[in-house]
Design brief:
With about 240 residues, this protein is α/β, with parallel strands linked by helices. The chain has two domains: about 190 residues, 3-Layer(aba) Sandwich (Rossmann fold); about 50 residues, no CATH class. The chain is about 45% helix and about 10% strand. It has eight helices and five strands; from the N terminus they run ααβαβαβαβαβαα. It has a five-stranded parallel sheet with strand order 3-2-1-4-5, sandwiched between helices. Helix 3 packs across helix 7 and helix 5 packs across helix 6. The longest helix is centred in the N-terminal third of the chain and has 25 residues. The protein is globular, with a radius of gyration of 18 Å.
């Protein structure tokens, strides 16, 4: 029992360290400050290619610029996420776009080969999640809530919840070494339905990467509402300021 208490206190200390470090990054901490501490290893899971970009792209770019290591993981390959394309060709396209997004942000981007719209919290996929967290030796794990409106998002949250303890159990997915300590887990913040004023992280990514006012992220059919918002400072305001609160 004493050992459990010591481990719990250690986890709290580690949680505090991560929160302080990432808060400093969000508030514009200097590169010198980042160099004075050990870089954190952060992994974020989204159900589809572009989910992590929308929820945490700008924040990931800031963390990477401060020297932290970030990996995005799409749990499905996005092969159903378009109104006129689908199957293997679409999965290939979305994988390439994810890799390019990772290159521009300065992070790693992994796309797992599970079908879009068919994700279930199976043991197979849980072990894929466990391996990703272990391979990255994560300090912080981010993902959607397990009560999301979309089944793929929801089950990604459930899979993370189910994997959370098992990453420390050596006999589960024994082909990858178990972590000695559990990472800190958290959910993406913000509203379910995106508006320009809801997610400053997304706008930060565009403005921070130097896109001109007329440039856009991609040509995404059903997702054009999100993808074709220009990088303009008029979007960098809060919902309250725009009368949406």
């Amino acid at each position: 029992m004493l050992r459990d208490a010591i481990d719990f206190v250690s986890l709290l200390d580690r949680h505090a360290m991560i929160v302080i470090a990432l808060a400093a990054a969000a508030l514009g901490g200097s590169a010198a400050t980042a160099e004075a501490q050990q870089p954190l290893r952060i992994i974020a899971f989204g159900a589809h290619p572009d989910d992590c970009d929308i929820r945490a792209g700008g924040t990931a770019a800031k963390w990477a610029a401060l020297g932290h290591k970030v990996r995005f993981v799409a749990v499905t390959n996005g092969d159903a996420g378009h109104q006129s394309e689908g199957g293997g060709a679409l999965a290939k396209r979305r994988r390439a776009e994810a890799e390019e997004a990772g290159r521009r942000i300065g992070i790693e981007y992994i796309v797992l080969d599970n079908h879009d719209g068919e994700l279930l919290p199976t043991l197979k996929v849980r072990e894929e999640i466990i391996r990703q967290i272990r391979e990255w030796n994560a300090d912080l794990v981010l993902g959607p809530r397990p009560n999301d409106y979309h089944p793929d998002h929801r089950y990604t949250g459930v899979l993370l919840q189910d994997a959370a303890f098992m990453v420390t159990v050596p006999n589960i997915a024994p082909d990858t070494p178990a972590l000695r300590k559990n990472p800190v887990y958290d959910h993406f913040k913000g509203k379910q339905w995106w508006r320009a004023c809801d997610n400053k992280s997304f706008q930060d990514m565009w403005i921070g990467r130097g896109r001109g006012p007329g440039q856009t992220k991609g040509e995404w059919g059903l997702l054009d509402l999100v993808a074709k918002v220009s990088a303009d400072e008029k979007y960098d305001r809060t919902c309250a300021e725009k009368g949406h609160a």
